[in-house]
Design a protein that fits this description.
Largest sheet: 2 strands, parallel
Structural class: alpha+beta
Number of strands: 2
InterPro entries: Glycosyltransferase_G1 (IPR052622)
Protein name: Glycosyltransferase 1 domain-containing protein 1
Radius of gyration: 12 Å
């Protein structure tokens, strides 16, 4: 992971605290925040929580890498 680069700008960081499982649908948020980040690179989503569904957590992790 590259991290968040800050160069003399305000950052907008959204923190999602949840156990990663399909029912909470964090993949929807990833898509929305990805589009928003493309429009404004100051916007970031951070997901923190245990992998409640390990297979789904891996799917989320792979999508974040893309």
């Amino acid at each position: 992971m590259d991290g968040i680069v800050q160069v003399d700008q305000n950052l907008y960081i959204f923190l999602l605290i949840c156990g990663l499982r399909r029912v909470k649908d964090p993949l929807y948020l990833l898509d929305v925040f990805s589009e928003w980040h493309q429009e404004d690179s100051r916007v970031h989503l951070i997901i923190v929580g245990p992998p409640a569904d390990p297979a789904f957590a891996k799917e989320v992790e792979e999508k974040v890498k893309r």
